[in-house]
Amino acid sequence: MYRARAGTRTETDKMESNEGFDAAEVQKIQSYIQDGDLGSAIKRIKSYLEDLENAPLNIAVTGESGTGKSTFVNTFLELSDKDAAKTGVVETTMRPTAYSHPKYKNVKYWDLPGIGTLNFKAKDYLRKVGFANYDFFIIIASDRFRECNIQLAQAIQGMQKKFYFVRSKIGQDMYSCQRQRGKSFREETILEEIRENCLKCFKEGNINNPKVFLLDCLEKGKYDYDDLQETVEKELPAQKRHVFLLSLPNISLSVLEKKRETLRQQIWRKAALSCAVATIPIPGLGIACDVTILVKTMREYQTVFGLDEGSLRKLSQSSGKSISELKSVIRSPQVIGELNREFVIKMISKGTMGAVMLAEGLMSSVPVFGSLAAGGLSYVITSKMLSGFLFESTDDAQRVLIKASEDSV
User: Fold this and answer.
1) Helix, strand or coil, per DSSP, at residue 28
2) Domain 55-249 carries which CATH code?
């Protein structure tokens, strides 16, 4: 039904080796199943998936007025003009203002009022903006490093919160330095000078292990853009890391691969939910659950990878490529097709015989369900279809991104 990507192991391969399973989670679900308490098994899996999908992520963006705070928010959320944070040369943000991700409403970037006034007191400022409400802070500065940046970093650190320092408007700095230095201009040298100056100032302010990133908020993917995303991702707890990754703009092949991996890690739970419901002896309930889970998850994959109509239309407008040009590189008819119950049922029927044979050989190796034949079959079908669809969606998204990035001749 689906091809496996060359050089990679399928979800079934991983299932056979128990790789990627949360041992404690498996044991708890397994105990419910063995005790015949299928309702509790289903409730536990559903609760985990709902918590994962709805985990709130609140990112505070602060700094002096005019440093590009609002532009940073607009860039990372890819907000359209009507939803965008206001930008300007004077302070346009007078109170903490939340901007939700267009697709993931639980991901919010908070544009905080500017710092650096004569009466600025870092601790008072943080209390006024409700510092406890945010998962971490991004301090944005442009031009010269100022004392208020140190004061704010010290206060955030003292309140046991993480912060990331962004030196913005690097593109303007490069332009100015190139005009001033002429033939002696070297971009790498200027970037290193700016970075070292920021780190030196933090060191003098007794800030431990500051994370400094050089960005131009108007140019996605340039300078330290990817490094900032990667650092934040690594330092977030698991559930918030998942939703952060899904919310990232699809501007690089590496981001698409990371999204694929975080979604792959959840396939076994989706398959386990299908399997648990299938073991309940109500005619037709198992297949109904399979279809519901598959339709919902496949639509999610389309959205995550920007393969839905709305995302393709938006990419078409920003890249200058027509929607038909972008769709021309999508090779999987399943990925671009209309995902509804009828479509998925046809896909299940095509792959059922092979899945039955596969399930017979896997009954003893599925760590959650042992020899429950009906549940085992649902597990295999759901796992196999989602794994294949996920890999094909990732491949197609990468081809679309490359196509959108091509220069017009």
Assistant:
1) helix
2) 3.40.50.300
